[in-house]
Write a structure and sequence with these properties.
186 residues, mainly beta, 1 helix
Length: 186
C-alpha cells in the first residue's frame, strides 16, 4: 500500500512541476482536530476523543482549470483525551484537489507524520507511539473570499501508531480524526 502512495505522490509531483497552467499559490491554515485512537486494547474509560490544534502551511499548484496538487506541512495534536494517549505530529499531507466550482472543492491524499511529542508520565497506561504514522485523508473545502477558505477533513490511520515491541502479543491502534480549519491564501 505504501509503494502505491509513494508512486502516486511522485507522479503528482512530476505532473505539477511540468504543468504550465496557472501560477502556484501559498497559504496558512489553523484549526481543530477531534481525534481518537481506535484500538481494541484501550480500556473503555480511556476512549474519549481529544480536541487538539492543527496549524500549517500549504502550496497549491494548478494542473488544469479544475485539478490541482496541494502539499502541506502542519503541526497536529491527536490521540485520546487521557494524557497518556496524547501524541503530537509534524505531518505532510499531499492532496489531489478537484474544484467543483469557484467556491467548492474536494481533496484526497496520503498523509505522513513524524512524532515530535508524546506524554512521558504514563501512569494510567504504558503507551509508546511509533515515530512514523501514515494516514489517508479526504476533505471538502469552501472558498469564502478570494483569499479566505475553510475545509473539513476526515483522516483515517493506515499504519499502527502504537509501538508494541515491548508488549507480549502486540497491540494495534490507528488514528481517526475530523479536522475543521480556516485558512488564508497569500
Amino acid at each position: 500500500m505504501s509503494k502505491v502512495i509513494l508512486y502516486t505522490t511522485i507522479f503528482l509531483m512530476f505532473v505539477t512541476f511540468n504543468s504550465q497552467a496557472q501560477e502556484a499559490s501559498y497559504g496558512v491554515r489553523i484549526g481543530a482536530n477531534l481525534s481518537s485512537i481506535s484500538s481494541d486494547d484501550i480500556p473503555e474509560n480511556l476512549e474519549d476523543s481529544r480536541l487538539g490544534i492543527v496549524a500549517g502551511f500549504l502550496a497549491e499548484f494548478p494542473i488544469t482549470e479544475k485539478w490541482s496538487f496541494q502539499p502541506e506541512f502542519q503541526y497536529s495534536a491527536i490521540g485520546n483525551d487521557d494524557e497518556s494517549l496524547r501524541v503530537d505530529y509534524l505531518q505532510v499531507p499531499v492532496f489531489i484537489k478537484y474544484n467543483i466550482s469557484d467556491r467548492f472543492n474536494v481533496h484526497i491524499g496520503p498523509q505522513a507524520g513524524i512524532k515530535i511529542w508524546e506524554w512521558e508520565d504514563n501512569t494510567s497506561v504504558e503507551t509508546n507511539f511509533n515515530t512514523f504514522n501514515l494516514a489517508a485523508v479526504a476533505g471538502i473545502g469552501v472558498n469564502i473570499t478570494e483569499n479566505f477558505f475553510a475545509d473539513l477533513r476526515y483522516g483515517f490511520g493506515i499504519s499502527n501508531m502504537i509501538d508494541d515491541s515491548n508488549i507480549p502479543g502486540g497491540t494495534k491502534g490507528n488514528t481517526r480524526n475530523i479536522q475543521l480549519s480556516l485558512g488564508y491564501k497569500l
